[in-house]
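Sample pair:
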Amino acid sequence: MKIYLDLIFFVNFGFDFLLLLVVSVLLRRTVHLKRIALGALIGGMSIFALFLPMDTITLFLFKIGISVFMLLATFGYRNRRYFFRNFFYLYTASILLGGFLYFLNVQFSYGQEGLVFFHKGFSINVVFLIIFSPIILYTYVKQGLHLKQNYSCYYKVKLYSKDNIIEKTAFLDTGNTLIDPYMGRPIILMNERNWKNEEEFFFVPIHTVGETSLLKCIRLEKIEIVGIGERKNVVLGLTKEPIRMEGIDVLLQKQLLEG
């Protein structure tokens, strides 16, 4: 069997470069592409050492050591937390990429009859891997950044009124600047279907694009934002329109997290 070491090196170098680039983007590391290429070069060169006789444990430790050198060459060392975050994201991306490629290889290379799998004589070639690997990692980065950006604005809250206490999931809506014009209190929003108790309410005029309407409101005794603290003098606005965000019941007013 022929083994093309130059081809293996370039494929390994390309994968390592993509993985280090993913870590850099997800963690917002300020690092030049030359440093990423240097780290990938260390990973690519290590492929030649894998032909040396090693047992399973030694090979595992060798790969861990190479990963450490790759990260140090690319990102340097500032403190343990900085390094281990780099290490964790590198292996998370590696496992994700390896899992997807293994899944694709099984789907294309094996057939199934009942519970029996058999090889169809076809395997994913290098070109296929080169094409799909960037797509897989790009999707991972895109979703990772989306989660970091959005879920950092999610909060667990407890709403205390005169006769009711409810727990909800809230989202910090930076576009919500509603203020009670009578007392200057911030207004948070929730769909009226989520508020079951009948309590004394009042109406607040709100201005939207091209029109003015009245918002049904309830004065809250206080609101507890888990991890932030308690806020008093808050008004709960009950809207007829549902909040079109997955898993969100309440839209917080941005002043509640200021000071």
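The first strand starts at residue 110 and ends at 113.
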